[in-house]
Amino acid sequence: MDLVKWDPFHELTGLQSSINRLFDENFRYPRMYPGTLAHGWAFPVDIKDTPNAVLVKAEIPGANKEDIQVTFNDNLLTIRGERRKEEKEEGANFLRTERSYGSFSRSFTVDVPVKQDEMKARYRDGILEIVLPKDTDAKRMGRNIEIQ
Description:
The structure is a single chain. With 148 residues, this protein is of the alpha+beta class. It has a domain at 31-84 and 101-139: Immunoglobulin-like, CATH 2.60.40. It is built from two helices and seven strands, in the order αβββββββα. It holds the Pfam family HSP20. This is Hsp20/alpha crystallin family protein.
């Protein structure tokens, strides 16, 4: 008879894997459901501050360029639009449906002066890229306020 060393944590590795899978499947991409504050679905965004500009990259796969609007008002950048559902196929039996459809909207505050006449946006391969050039002259226009 061989002696086997008992590892009290061996059973916990399976439990940890199950919990990780639960969170990965249900919380990877936050979804907004009807009745919440924001209708539609959320898309991931990267915002990068460089010396000359603020760069925004948003993943919006499956949307048409014509269905996306980008606005910049009072230092608030807003991306909104709609991703339309594909036509339903007759006799199709879906085993799993994970892609979200419908309207979407996200807003971000930009805390630096921006040259509004030089802003650019490009949508290619499901990625929306927005360039907000910084306005360096706005810093020079500031003045000190004397405290009385």
